[in-house]
Amino acid sequence: MRNSFIGRHGLLLFFVILGISASVAISVATVPDGALPSDPGSPPVENHLDMMLSPEDEIVPKTIDVPSGTGAAVSTPAPVYTWMPKDAHVSYRIADIPLPQGYTRVQAEPGSFAEWLRYLPLQPKGSPVLLYNGKQKGNQEAHYAVVNIDVGKQDLQQCADAIMRLKAEYHYSKNEYSKIHFYFVSGFNAAYSKWAQGYGIKVAGNKVQWVASSSSGKSYTSFKKYMIAVFNYASTLSLGKTMKPVGSPADIRIGDVFLKAGAPGHAVIVVDLAENQSGGKIFMLAQSYMPAQEIHVLKNYSGVFDGLPWYPAEFGDFLYTPEWEFKAGQLMRFTE
Questions:
Q1: Is residue 317 part of a domain?
Q2: Is the pTM of this model over 0.85?
């Protein structure tokens, strides 16, 4: 969705994404649509290494209690959201969004990605969706709630990026470094386990390789720099390489993704799931979009559930969300 960095006209970029100071910027040239490292089709951006870094990076992570009586399994330990200060007060979560009458939340395995998504902290009710530059998104009618997570200071954390951020944050919170890996559009496998061992990523033209770096590592600051690299060079075009198709929306799970790869493309993630006594399932979706904006829970414009942000699993051939239309066959699932 963003203009690519390495163009078909032979423009070469060389920089090393090491764990260097957040004050050092990476200048990025934009080129015509169709080049390798990121989604074409969106306005050009200038990307800096410090786009997601702030004085609060080295914080004690926040754990959120999982209460009983919500239709979800109680986990031990509670989900961890590393970006939030430990003393942050959380009074509104995905799990607090009401259910339609007759439905109960499907049990989520303790410690799973599904449970982690279900208890994502939300901003206060009525909060607007903000862009990376602090301005309000033009369309404030698409969201039901806003997830309490930073978007960064540059136009990078768009749709696929937001999904990769959530998946990576979950595994990082559990020290599952080997499960954090995403493919660049070029095909390069950016494995965080390699980054955590002290390696940075060197890009020269269309060639990408690992290089030793004394500054890369396991700190949260370094993790966020890794995510910047992923945002720069991965997209909807490469996200599917870590996924497999789901046979039918009837088999939908929390953490599944509706993915339209392309230029432009789009992706939304399932963040909650419920069912009725007849086995009928409903699900909730979250997204970021263009330009980069806060992750938010999507409304269902159909009004089928009286304004609540739930979608029926039996939606037919097409899933209509406020800002995109997906086909039923575009439902995907992470392979790990």
A1: yes
A2: no
Question: Does some domain include residue 54?
Answer: no
Domain count, the chain: 1
Q: Work out whether the CA dihedral 185, 186, 191, 195 comes out positive or negative.
A: negative
115 part of a folded domain: yes
Query: Which structural domain range is residue 127 located in?
Result: 61-147+242-334
List the helix and strand counts (H, then E) for the chain: 5, 18
Whether 162 maps to a domain, the answer reads no
Q: Which residues of 307-325 are buried (b: 16+ CB within 10 A; e: fewer)?
A: ebbbbbbebeeebebbebe
Strands across the sheet with 207-212, in order? 14-17, 199-204, 207-212
Q: Calculate the dihedral angle through the C-alpha atoms of 94, 96, 97, 100, rounding to the nearest 10 degrees.
A: 130
Q: Which of 318, 323, 283 is nearest to 301 (CA)?
A: 323
Specify the higher pLDDT residue, 312 or 57: 312
Q: Kindly report, residue by residue over 211-229, the tens digit of the pLDDT.
A: 998 778 899 999 999 999 9
| Interval 43-86: pLDDT, tens | 333 333 333 433 334 444 566 656 544 444 443 578 999 999 98
Cα-flanking dihedrals φ and ψ of residue 14, to 5°? -135, 120
Residue 91: burial class (beta carbons within 10 Å; 0-12, 13-18, 19+): exposed
- In this structure, what DSSP letter does residue 254 have? T
Q: Which of 160, 209, 221 is nearest to 19 (CA)?
A: 221
Tokens encoding 138: 């033009």
Q: Does residue 154 contact residue 51 with C-beta atoms inside 8 Å? A: yes
| Distance of alpha carbon 18 from alpha carbon 211, whole angstroms | 9
